[in-house]
Amino acid sequence: MTRGDDPTPGACASTDCSLREALDAAVATPGGDTIVLGSGQYTVTRGTLPVYGEVTIEGEGMAQTRIVGTGNFDLIEVTPLGALTLDGLALSSQRQALKVSSGTALLRFVRVPAGGGTISAIGTSAPAELRVEHAVLGDALGCECGAGSVRIADSTLNSVLVYNGSADLVLDRVEVIGPTPALYGVAFTTSGTATIRNSTIRGHAAPLVLGGSGGDVRIRHTRFVGNTGPLHGSRDGMAWLEDVEFRDNIVDDARLANGAPAVLLAQDETAWRIARALFIGNRGGGGSGPGLIGSTVRVTAGGNLVMSDTTFYDNTFRPEVANAAGHAIGVDTAGDTAVFWLFHATLRAGPFVPDNAVASLLAVRGAAANLRIYNSILDGTCAFASGAGMTQAEGNLEVPGNTCRLPAATNDIDVPPMDLFLGPLADNGGFTRTFLPTRYSPAVDRGVATWCNIAGGVFSRLDQRRYLRPAAGIACDSGAAETAAVSDTLFADDMD
Length: 496
Known about the structure:
The chain is mostly beta strands. It has two domains: 1-204; 215-496, no CATH class. The protein is built from two helices and 37 strands. It has a 28-stranded parallel β-sheet that branches. Strands 22-25-28-30-33 form a five-stranded parallel β-sheet, with no helix packed on it. A two-stranded parallel sheet has the order 24-27. The protein is elongated and about 90 Å long. InterPro entries: Choice_anch_Q_dom, Pectin_lyas_fold, Pectin_lyase_fold/virulence.
């Protein structure tokens, strides 16, 4: 390029060629074309820049090259069957920064500042494909991709929405970060599959929203931090979360008013499976009214939640909440079955839960609750109402008392707190911190073999750190971490 303004289009001469003229010239040539932009700003004033065919626009870098739209129009549009690569530049627009119509776009080393325009794609006549690598996008990215896909890696985003059709979503090493007015972190409502790995989602009122029906949603090695509302959805399918952390999620005033939990609202249709997780420092809304028990995790009528090898610590309600019940987990059937199963968990109330808390760990309401707890440590209290009870429990320890209604024949109840002998919450290996029992703890070798020796699924032989159970062939421990166990991974960084 030899000029940075947007004159009336003419020929793209070697000494006089604007970006619009270069795009026009690309239409007339067979095969792909590359347009090279130097450092500086390229100002677009004459309307949307259309992209036909295969085009690459190269800049000098996100901080050196800028394409700026100054009117009320979309900045760049990829026309049907077009293919655009943007590399090493920044975009800013009063409307959409990039619009893809049944085409393909790759954004590599691209920055769009907050307020600089959204990225959108629509697959109608053909699938839309979006690829993002090493980018910083300050506004939302949305795709109604048809049968296409969205794949994002090594990037920072404001929000990702993939909806309708059968598109797939893959996020690898991505930070999805608020700020206001962002509502959704990741919203996925297609019949395809979604995979989120090695990522962080923070600062959102709805960090993960699932809808529609279809393939599995799988999340691994991901942290949900500082969000102001829970994960939720009505997707007819499975959501698998493995090696995840939920930390310092505190509902804002709007979600406090409707009693939202801080981390997860498990409702009808979506079946949630959570393994090797840490819930810590979360503060929810709610109370003792119908459907409002459970500050951090709430399972309502028709909900289905199974968790294994998981630690809860210091989760409670916001201080404004009165008559609260279930300071970590609440199960409310309201006449319809709700499933909540817990395997190899360590639940501890923590120092900021009020001394007079009703159910500092778990509250259950309704006779239709299918509640099963196995090989777990319950350091706190439970409460039951409206005919609720424990469906089955084996291999557990309750400290102190027996408010969780564990059968004495198959569990250790009323264990004195001073006799629990758990180490501090610490990095004992794995993705998240754990409470590791000392060799004097009654949790050592207390687990029932039925619930720790079955490989795969929720009955995993791995503890929260991905260490193998049982250690040295001895009976497995109760709780989320196995004393004296060894890792199942070959590399220290847990590489597969």
